[in-house]
């Protein structure tokens, strides 16, 4: 079956019409996920706000690229800590998201591995984000965070976490 091909798109580069399928393909791998903290019996999840290409704020799950020699699990723990200030303990894998997008000079095939983490320590902050990509970070109730998230694929990750944590609710 393999990886689905990206949709064919045309765009203009310096006045020339170029088909995206003729651009070189770059593979990227990232990892992140949901770090859960339970307060008074209610699970909360730390999410971040980033600016999209149009300059608007979008809430999303913390994630980032793997560093050389790093596993996806290690990257998820590190990226969540960098972008939210929260240290988490890996509980389990949730799912991987696979998608394509184009930049001016290449097509990118991106795979993002998402994990469930349990809160260990820390206060929510973006002050330690080395890339300064996160504008803000905050806790949201797990059962309400989906309506805050900008991307449908990330809402699906939350649904998978809810199914895993509350299997009796899905009978």
Order of helices and strands: EEEEEEHEEEH
Helix content: 10-25%
Q: What is the residue-averaged pLDDT?
A: 87
Number of DSSP E strands:
9
Distance between the termini: 31 Å
CATH superfamily label: Nucleoside Triphosphate Pyrophosphohydrolase
Spatial shape: globular
**Structural class determined from secondary elements:** alpha+beta
The gyration radius over C-alpha positions equals: 17 Å
Structure description:
With 171 residues, this protein is an alpha+beta fold. It has a single domain (28-165), classed as Alpha-Beta Complex (Nucleoside Triphosphate Pyrophosphohydrolase), CATH 3.90.79.10. 16% of the residues lie in helices and 46% in strands. The chain has 2 helices and 9 strands, in the order ββββββαβββα. The protein has helices at 72-84, 152-165, and strands at 10-13, 16-19, 25-39, 42-51, 57-60, 63-65, 87-102, 107-121, 134-141. Strands 3, 4, 5, 6, 7, 8 and 9 form a 7-stranded mixed β-sheet that branches. The longest helix has 14 residues, at 152-165.
Search tags:
171 residues; alpha+beta; Nucleoside Triphosphate Pyrophosphohydrolase; seven-stranded mixed β-sheet; 2 helices; 46% strand
Question: Summary?
Answer:
The chain is α+β, with helices and mostly antiparallel strands. It is 16% helix and 46% strand.
Annotate the secondary structure layout:
Blueprint: E1 10-13, E2 16-19, E3 25-39, E4 42-51, E5 57-60, E6 63-65, H1 72-84, E7 87-102, E8 107-121, E9 134-141, H2 152-165
Parallel strand pairs: 3-8
Antiparallel strand pairs: 1-2, 3-4, 3-6, 4-5, 4-9, 7-8
